[in-house]
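If you are new to this repository, start here. Below is one unmodified record pulled from the training split, so you can see the exact layout before writing a loader.
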Amino acid sequence: MRNAKLIVPALVVLGAALLIGVFAAMSMGGSHGKAVVKTKTVGGRTILTTRRGMTLYRLSVERRDHFICTGSCLAEWKPLVVSRGVTPTGARSLGVVRRPDGRRQVAYKGGPLYTFVEDGKPGDMKGDGFKDVGTWHVVSVSGKPAPSTPANVGGGYGY
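And here is the target side for that same chain:
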């Protein structure tokens, strides 16, 4: 009977320690083992994609803390955002920049990353070369624009 009285508190302490360990591992793990960004080889160059394979773009005139794509621009160009505590993984030179609305956007070499709504399936690059306030380019890991597909030259989106 005396051993049973000791076993219950010991199990409670063990269970609490296990839970604390699990929560600590989750908070330190950042992306929880899933890459936020992937790479894909296209035409001899390596480009960045989302984990679902959607092409990632960068606006030529946009830099860390200087956002051009806000307001109605976001209807066509979707920022790749992560939750607080998530560290972007999957390629070198990834980081996070804080958008004007407070969201944490994934960046490559300081340049915020976006997907294009007209890319309907993985591998589409319909936004490459799109010109407006600047030029949208597929992001390659070399930092240079990826091979261009026919450019979409469109009207303004009210940036």
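Two things worth knowing about this chain: DSSP finds one helix and ten strands in the chain. Confidence is low (pLDDT under 50) at residues 14-31, 146-159.
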